Amino acid sequence: MPASRPIWKGQLRLSLVSIAVELYTATKSSAKPSFRQIHEPTGKPIHYEKVVAGVGPVDKDEIMKGFEYEKGDYVLLSNEEIDAVKLDTRKTLELTQFVGACEIDPIYFDKPYFIVPADDLAEDAFRVIRDALRASEKVGLGQLALRGKEYLVAIKPTGTGLLLETLHYEEELRKADPYFAEISAKKADAELLEVATALIEKKTAPFDAGVFKDHYQAALRELIATKLKSKSKKVSTKDEPDEAAPSGSNVVDLMAALKSSLEGSSGGKKKTPAKSAPRKKAS
């Protein structure tokens, strides 16, 4: 059984078929060091008080949630009123549409969760939906009310279970056009494209997330371990020189850089990328 507690329990529904399922977070918050703000002279953690201008600290019982409909004017809502909002998606996740596994743009994906059958009775129907999704190469879409918000979600098979990924709604995403407007639509040079494609092919390998490590988090943990070992309040670190800004003499020929990378590249070695010439704005 999972070591963590489910963050949601309910029914996964496909038409008239309902399956009791549980939802678990697929990521670990403990994977990264967390920090608190500390008062250095005393070594004690800093706490925050909820205060009102002209009033001072207030009790938790006096706090409500407010929606600002005009500057400085709010509609107040109690937790009871918010909880009373009835949504079928609070207890039921219905698969209302199916799309091709590659149809959803990666920009929509947010957070992953595991879906597992709640008991042995639900397992048979759970396997049917899992295997049907795998056989059809489709992703199921639905909506789920979770932690005060209704999420758009995508469900697909993973191993012997199901993976649920929350999706951003369209209105939550920025339009890309303003950011890409000045990039020319001109096609890349054919020869350069050929060499770059060959370089990509040479470095192509099956995906293995275990190969990649979070070097920043590892360095933080090493720093913490050093501090604990030395019992020192300060650890001296050598200041690394700032990377020099590219100048005209540093700009190398793009074709030469690509060919050099292609000749010297290997799956297990990393090479410092050469600097390319500054991009001209599209006219």
From TrEMBL:
Gene3D superfamilies: 2.40.290.10. One of its GO terms (molecular function) is double-stranded DNA binding. Residues 268-283 have a biased composition (Basic residues). Keywords: DNA damage, DNA recombination, DNA repair, DNA-binding. GO terms for biological process: DNA recombination; double-strand break repair via nonhomologous end joining. Residues 55-184 form the Ku domain. InterPro entries: DNA_bd_Ku70/Ku80 (IPR006164), Prok_Ku (IPR009187), SPOC-like_C_dom_sf (IPR016194). It comes from the Bacteria. Residues 231-250, 260-283 are annotated as: Disordered. Pfam families: Ku (PF02735). Signal peptide: none annotated. Belongs to the prokaryotic Ku family. With LigD forms a non-homologous end joining (NHEJ) DNA repair enzyme, which repairs dsDNA breaks with reduced fidelity. Binds linear dsDNA with 5'- and 3'- overhangs but not closed circular dsDNA nor ssDNA. Recruits and stimulates the ligase activity of LigD. NCBIfam families: Ku_bact (TIGR02772). Homodimer. Interacts with LigD. This is Non-homologous end joining protein Ku. It comes from Devosia litorisediminis. The gene is ku.
